[in-house]
Every structure is written in structure tokens, then in C-alpha cells.
Amino acid sequence: MTVDKAIAWVLDLPAWVWITIIAHFLVLGTVAYLILLERKVASWVQDRIGPNRVGLGFGIIPGLKDMHMFGLGQPLADGLKFIVKEDYAAKSVDKVLFTLAPFVMIIVIIISIAVLPMGGIRQLTKQVDITLPAQGASQQQALAQLRKDADKDYYAAAPARDYVAPDGTAHQVWDVTYRYHFQIADLNIGVLYVLAILSLSVYGVVIGGWASNNKYSFLGGLRATANMISYEIPLGLAVLCIVLMFGTLNLETIVDQQAHYWAGFIPAWNVFSQPLAFVMFLICIHAEANRAPFDMAEAEQELVGGYHTEYSSMRFALFFLAEYAGMVTTSAVCVALFFGGWQIPWVDKIPFIAHLMPDANHPSVTTSLIVCIVRALVMFGKTIIVIFVFMWVRWSLPRFRFDQLMMLAWRALIPLSLALMVMTAIVVYFWAPEPGTVMLINGWAALALLVGNAVVLVLSMGISMILPAAPLTNRKAYVPGSRYRRTPLPLGIVSGGSLAGPRATGSPVVAG
Amino acid sequence: MKDSDVIVLREPHLSLGDQFYLPQVLIGLGTTMKHMLRTLGGQNRVIQYPEEKREDMPVEKGGINLTTYRGVHRLNKDEEGRVKCVACFMCSTACPARCIHIEAGEAPWADREKYPVKFDIDELRCIYCGMCEEACPVDAIELTHLYDIVGLTRQEMIFDKSKLLRVYDKTVKDEPM
User: Fold this and answer.
1) Do A48 and A127 reside in the same domain of the chain?
2) Is the ipTM of this complex over 0.95?
């Protein structure tokens, strides 16, 4: 194959191949640099500067040795360390599962980036020359032929002109419009796909904790499983509120529907119309990613490393990267669902940009590739901001105790998300669109949703104050010789036998 | 273990804001953001070694006082260039880490009885407390301001008499006796 043919073949590759390759490497590169960002953010919060010595010269390349570059070469050094470090497995681990756990985790997380809407839809119009069949063909037949030959990005076609070629055959030139989605896969069930795939990441944690044959790993894996499974329910319900609003699971459509304005200037983002759903979603994705304050599973001070204690070098790197890649993916889904995805607010009011949007009903369609790329970068930027919030929260909040964590999911978030879903359903009923169409949230519907969110919040707080107290989950048991013997018993508790201290008999004791 | 053995603790009463937790979360996030912005604005006190060194900074800003800092030891010489030490063993006795080893010998000079034939200090065992400096009656041993001495082997970091005298030659200009 000659060079020209090879280049032509490469340029002819469908759009999704390019997007896949670029998105994949971008995610992996981002994940590596997120480790550096995490260390830097941690340092800034703690009044110090993070790693700022490793430039791109690694300290040995002569020209670049002294250029520190704010420590931007640190992820490369980390990567090198992971590659050359000794990779061992303890003798008593389960051979197959020990190796399998990080693979499961990283594969699952990487394939979930497939449905993220990255740049909208690019419309391209090409001229296609069709030879009409000899016996006086009709336009319908030409159209059928065109549809058969076109790929799935085909959108519309219109005949432009007829002419007769020098050799006597009749030709028609058609203007064929293609619409390319800037997504790896434009699934109609995008949201469901992401939720289902992210649920599979629990398996990586479970298998890793179990296969390590180590009680700390086992406990860590157990806690992580309970954590992740409990928080999938309010996650799904919060997403369901958004899905109810729009009536579609397609992420591209959801972003598309957020790309208009209320009252002329407020961008129609879901964070403004359903802030409570956004807050719940944010809490749930913190828990799904096992990030502080929900990082019981890898609580460094308690469990050594939790489920990744026994892993070293590349296996640990895969777990680590999977955690950060999960953060990236769920942040991107959060941005797509709540912050209008790739939309840059108010930019499409500029006449020069508005000229590039052919379809007023679908702001995601644009004729310019540059706009699509800029949108992808904007989505990336918003994702980084949400990830920054992840890191900010990690270094601000103390860790939840395991029973507090469970209580938050089952007793607080699930009832709240159910109430929110009911409220959303009521509002959607009153603004119901015709069956089969996607609902457009206009200003009044958004206001109703916002009021509904506030009502749900106030009502649930009020009801929680009236409800009887839940049974105590935090009880301390007496251990002979422990200091609890000296703690005075609360008023009303009858002391038992000889195990109670001498102060407990007779005189009433005031509660501590 | 009976039910009556269980001690039920009453936890402190939380206000509504505390129960809801999110207001406190937001206040906490504000505190960390304040620290972050302060650090990014350049108000941190991190010294970028080796571009900035503590001996170059004034004491108020975190620098060290060259005359009082307790760093590596040196053996002082008198005006004629002889070692001042008279091998009285007071520093060796005073040392809490027992890192000074002296061998005394008859001094080749008329005005002294003893002088150290061998004077070894294990700089890695030393805790840099300065007791030897305080104990010496003839001001022979002093701690200098040098702190960045490194070695590749432990043997290298056992300073013998000649090395300690070389430290004197290096530091006497910046830090007179």
C-alpha cells in the first residue's frame, strides 16, 4: 500500500474512530495529571506548595535539567516508578482473582466514557453524484440507493441538479447532509448504560479485597461494597428526576435540551432548576468513587490500604488510576446532566456564532468543526472544575464512620430522593408534552421545579423533626478493666450485677 | 455479657444546622478555600531549598543565627596553629549519645601536658545538643553552622581529628571562635 493510499485511508476513517482514540488518550493523560493536581490541591489547602521540582527533564536530560516547570513532569516520574517497581504477589493470594481485580476495575471505568456527549453534533453537507439507472429512474429510487450506501450519520438529502454525462448516462447530484455526533457511541439509553457500567466497578473492589487473603483488605473490601451499593440507589433516583423531566435517557438530548435560555439570559441548566437533585448526585458520586468523606474502604489510618494493601507497582497503579478515571467519568456525567455539558452560555447569541447553528430547535448542531472542538474543551474544563470540587471536599471534611455512612444513604438520601422524584413527576404531569416528544423545560416549569425542590427540602426537614428517634446504632459494650467502667452510667439505666462500678449502686448518677 | 452490661452513651445534642450537616460543610469548605487562596497568593512560609537557604534569611523570617546554630563540630586551633584541645575527656563524658572517642597522648609542646592523638566524632550518632561545647574548659570544641554535610557511607561520617580541623579552617572566617 503506497503512502498516498495509506494517508487517504486514514483520513477516511469515520469520525467515531478519531473521537475514540483522542478521548481515550485524553482520559488516561488526564488521570495521570489528576494525581498531580490532587497533591497540589492538598498542599495548597495545607499552606504549602506541592511537588514543584520534577520538570520534563527528569533531572538528567542536560538541557531541561533545571527547568522545574511547576512540577509538571511528576506524573511521568510516577508512571516510570510504577513500571519499574517490583511486581510481586504474596504466596497465599488467589492467583487468578488477584490479577483480575484491577483489570475489571479499569476496564469497566474506561468503557463508560463511551456515551459522554463531548461536543454536540457536526453537520456536514456533501455533494454526491448518483448515476440514475437507465430506465427512467425516479427520485425515490435514487434516494433509496443513497440511504443504502450512507452510514448511520446520514440525516437528509435533497436533489440539487441533473446533468447528462458525456457518455450519455443521466446523473443527479444530491446534497447529502450528515450529522456526526461528537460522542463515541450515541446510545439512546446513555444514562442507563453509565449507571449499569459503574455498578460493575464494585466487583473490582470486592474481588481485590477478597483475593488478598488479608483481614484488613477483607474488611476494606466489605466496607467498600456496602458503601458503593448503598449509594447507587439515591444516585439512580436523582438521575431519574432528570430523566423524568426530559423523558429521554439519551445524554446528547439531555444536554441539547439544556442549551436554551430562560428569560432570555439564564442558561437552562438543571442545576438551576433542580439543585437538590444536583447536591444528591454530587454526594452519591463521592461515595461511588470511595472518596473522602466516604473513603472508609481505603481509610489510610485504619486499614493500612484497605482493599489495595497487597497490591504493588502496576496493579496498584491500575487501582489508583481506576479510582481517578471513575472520578473523571462521573464528573463528566454530572456536567452533562446538570451543567449543560458542552454548552458555553451566551456565546451563541453572538451573530457570528449564531450563523454556525443551522437548527434553532437543536442547538447542539453546528456546521463548524472548530465549534465542536471548543465545546469539547469547554466540557473538559467543566469536568476539571467538578473534579477540583472532589479534591477540595477531600481535604475539608472528616471521614464518616461506617454506620453514619449507611445511615446517610438509607435513612436520609433514599427517602429524600424518592420525595424528589414524586415532586418531579407531579410537575412533569402538569407540563406534560405530547406523547412521543421530548419535553422542553421553559421558564415556568423550571420555576415550578425549583419551588418543588425547596418544598421537598423544607417538608423533609420538618417531618424528620417530628418523627420518633431512630434506634441507636452506636452502643458501647463494657469490657472488664476498660476505662468505660469509670464512666458514670446515664440516668435511668439499671446497673447490672457485679460488673457495674461501685458508684452505680444506690445514689442517682447524673448523665455525662 | 448481658444487656445490662451495655452502657448507653448519650451523645451531645446537635442543633438543626449541625444535623443537616451541609451548612457546616460549606463553612469548612470556605476555610480550606481561604487557605488555598492564601497559599496561591504567595503567603506561605515554604522555603524553596536550595534556591533559598535559611542562613541567608534574617532570623525574624525563619533564618538561622550563624553564631548560635548547632551544626557540625570543629576543633579550634590557637594563634600558633596548634589544636587547642587538651584531651581532658570532659566533652566525651558529657556527650549523651557517646559519640566522641578520644585517645590522649603526651603533648609535643612544652606548655601542655596532654593532647589528643585521636579525636573521633561520629556525626551520625551525634544529637547536636551542644553539651560538649558547653563542657569544654578551653573552648576547643565548637558547633558550627554547617548542617548540610552528607556522606555516602557511615564510615565517611565519622570525623577524625584532621577532618574536624579542616572544618575549622573552613568556618573560622564566617564564625569566629
Assistant:
1) no
2) no
